[in-house]
Prior knowledge:
single chain; mainly alpha; two-stranded parallel ribbon; two-stranded antiparallel ribbon; 4% strand
Amino acid sequence: MLFRMARLKKVAAAAAQSLLPGIEMATALSHGAQPVGGVPEWLWSDPYSLGFITGYIVGRATEYAVRNGLPPDKALRDENEHVEIQAVAWAEVAPKERYTEILRRVSALAKSNDPEFKRGSLAAMKICGYSCSGSKSYANDADILAAEQTADLLAQGGVYAPGRSSVCGELLNRLFYDHILTHHEKDQQKKVVDRFLDRYEYPGFDLPVKIRPKNKEVSARQFLERLLHNDADGYFFIRKDGLPALPYDVCAFLPLSIALGAEHYDACLSAKIAQLESIFSAKLGWLTGYLYSRIATPAIEEKIAEPVVYRDKFFKQVLYDKSAWLTPRQKSLLKTELKEWEKSHPAEVIDAATLEGMLDELPDDVSMVVTRVLQLLTNKSYVSPKPEVQAAAANILINDPALKSIISAAESE
């Protein structure tokens, strides 16, 4: 028993370590083949990557056990063995100062059945399963077929030796290292919005969503409105659903220049996936050249049947799916509730659903002021404690325009 576990731990640790060179190479390629100092910081909070590494650790340990005569369902006998192997393997790849935090995050993602974590884990298990049993178990799998074809072509060119290990290498590229490259590309496209929003963030929160000051919400919406209409200086923005070939929003940083020669024309032309209408080409030329006359382009409202719904969907995706806009009082109340939650859930990381429930329950500032006013007046016997009286008084105060205006003005200071 002890010998078996010792071998499984060693195999799992080696599996985790084997991923590091590829991660570093993919990260370097995503930065123009420049060395960037190892594993990117975002990877330790990316559900797909954490799921993949977790699945790869378990998959390689299971593969070793199967090759030594154990059936797959007996390779790791219980949850304790899973935990032991994960702890040893993650110690080989996770930064020492973040080791405990990363293990807690992995555990929370696994317990919450996070879809991206699960997708990454299944991708890794597919590689390990193919390595162990070959294509007979994956006869119609698109990833396996594509990897086999690529490996065959590379073997014909002398790059790979033919065989199952070459296909597994291509699967690693396809299912994991390409994810790192793609993540960086997406990250680059998000930076224009992220850099703007990062100015509006309360420090001290490590949560699934960003906590931002409520009084900056209007400013953020105004910036997105300008970006959506291409009225933000220095940017040219294209929404992903405006073009089927775009997998995510794209934004050009117009002051950033890239030198291209005539020899690059064919490569650029072959990579083209769309072309701007002439009027928008004119606007792009105006924006780029910093001309003094405005090009009158059709507004979104003229092109889309439900422009308000379209705009609100964009705002929700960018401003609200990963952010919560709170007043200072709400922020303090959330901190108190988080401390209470951590006391009752030691060694756990709060998941998105639990946090969403907390945020939904936070009262607005008007409600908090009204509750406190009624407490004071009731304690001094100026207001009856009867529920119907309390409800009527609260309703009058909450709906008073002057009181709302005073509290809103205090929020914006």
